[in-house]
Amino acid sequence: MQQLYYGLIDFTFEDKYDSIKNMELTTVSKNLQRITQIPFLDGTHMIASFGHLSGYAANYYGYLWSRVFAQDIFSVFEKNGVMDPKTGERYRKEILEVAASEEEMDMLRHFLGREPNSDAFMKSLGL
Q: Which of the pair, 126 or 93, is modelled with greater confidence?
């Protein structure tokens, strides 16, 4: 939830600025922090030290997506056995060896044999 919170901060201040431009910074921070279910501590100004808002765009959101894709890939290993040599070799050949010579989503689709999805990620969160 904390990672999602950081992504929400990023999107709010980068893409949804018009919706908050007349609000106090503390009010915006307090409203956004509700997602973490951690009480907001009055007198704090975490948002003022969140350096990722300066020139970082939506990369925090990207961190969360990398976990979605990692869990999707790992679901293949879980299905075939985590130590299955054929799956490991296929991962090496179709992902690691290809590296940046192909589009990442193409490599992912090829390895998975389907479109990527968030099912494994949601399962890893117990959802």
A: 93
